[in-house]
Design a protein that fits this description.
The protein is mainly alpha-helical. The chain has one domain. It contains 21 helices and no strands. The longest helix is centred in the C-terminal third of the chain and has 29 residues. The model has no long low-confidence stretch (mean pLDDT 88).
Length: 375
């Protein structure tokens, strides 16, 4: 009987308390949303299952937990804390990105810049709520709606907040179909949503596509050198894509490499949400600030597009401003869907991707600026 009692006391069932049950329920919800609703399944499924794994209680000192030295999960988590996985993801994103639409209509890049206002508003809000400057900077980047960038900056400024910030950033990216459409409809009229973008964009030459990643990395990284770990791989991946001489490398970067990094990034971030270190007042505040940041970023892009229309002869569809956040390609897809609900002949996807791509660059620059100022 004594052996039986000892065995039972060593099971996870015995150590399970309400905090772990809550987190396991959240992980299960993420898996449900990924499978049943198909909300960003590439992100939510590994994160959700990671949350479940990370909240199975165990005795400390066995080398099992993600925060215990020499555990398998701890070694995998190194790719998060060092910024390795986000850099690899950016390499793949660069190899997947087509900048043709953005270069054909450079003014759309302004919308990607405008959407970053959510970052700076959230920075001030976090400071006002009592967060330390480094913590506030890490929380603020959620406004860029870019998961890898959020994880990278948090690893540098406030590694103890990686779990809640990463979960918040990826949650709001996955919930774009729920969060963004109401804001789009609130800030635009039906007539504005029905504006057609002309299809007669100028032809972008191959030379422009080749020069862009080189000029882009110089302009961006000279402005914010701390963004090199993200934008360096990003523009290199794009150069591989457009060069046409390393197709095998470009395909690998945009498929197996980014997929592998995404699996380990999502799984280990999910596993880092152990209930005993995750369920805190700070985590709740981060989720609140994250929702505000994402909403303000969306609204900033929409409002700036409407302001631009005051000075443009050829009007742009204000919905494109909502694609200025870095959630590629979710926000661009949602802009296109919302426009088509009012006018099935209105095709905004490629124009929205131009704003989306510039948003990725903009959020990485903001992360570099915050890192250099707050470190």
């Amino acid at each position: 009987m004594e052996l039986l009692i000892d065995f039972l006391q060593n099971t996870g069932w015995y150590m399970l308390d309400y905090r772990y049950v809550i987190m396991i329920a959240i992980g299960t919800l993420f898996c449900y949303l990924a499978i049943a609703k198909e909300y960003e399944p590439l992100l939510l499924l590994p994160i959700g299952f990671g949350v479940i794994i990370g909240n199975i209680p165990f005795f400390k000192g066995f080398g099992l937990g993600i925060y215990e030295s020499n555990s398998v999960l701890h070694y995998l988590y190194f790719g998060v804390t060092s910024g390795l996985y986000p850099s690899i993801v950016f390499l793949g994103l660069g190899a997947m990105t087509d900048f043709t639409s953005m270069l054909a209509r450079p003014k759309l890049m302004l919308l990607g810049a405008a959407a970053q206002m959510g970052i700076y508003f959230t920075l001030l809000s976090a400071l006002a709520l009592g967060f330390e400057p480094k913590e506030a900077g890490a929380i603020a980047i959620i406004g860029g709606a870019d998961g890898p960038t959020s994880i990278f900056l948090t690893a540098k400024l406030a590694p103890h907040l990686i779990g809640p910030i990463a979960i918040a950033a990826y949650s709001y990216m996955a919930l774009i179909p729920i969060i963004q459409p109401p804001i789009m409809k609130l800030l635009t009229t039906k007539a504005e949503r029905c504006i057609h973008m002309p299809d007669d964009s100028r032809v972008v030459s191959r030379k422009e596509l080749l020069f862009f990643p080189i000029v882009g990395v110089l302009l961006c990284c000279l402005l914010a050198p701390a963004s090199i770990p993200l934008l360096g791989p990003f523009f290199f991946g794009n150069l591989m894509k457009v060069s046409g001489v390393v197709d095998r490398l470009a395909r690998t970067a945009s498929s197996s490499i980014i997929d592998t990094a995404t699996i380990f990034l999502g799984f280990t971030v999910g596993a880092s949400t152990q209930a005993d270190v995750f369920i805190t007042t700070k985590s709740i505040s981060i989720f609140f600030l994250g929702s505000v940041a994402f909403s303000i970023a969306t609204a900033s892009g929409l409002i700036f597009a409407k302001i631009m229309n005051l000075f443009l002869k050829e009007k742009i569809n204000p919905l494109l401003g909502a694609a200025g956040v870095s959630a590629v390609p979710g926000s661009a897809r949602e802009v296109h869907i919302v426009a088509q609900r009012d006018d099935p002949t209105n095709y905004l996807l490629m124009h929205a991707m131009a704003c989306n791509s510039s948003g990725v660059i903009g959020s990485a620059i903001c992360a570099g600026i915050l890192w250099s100022f707050l470190l």
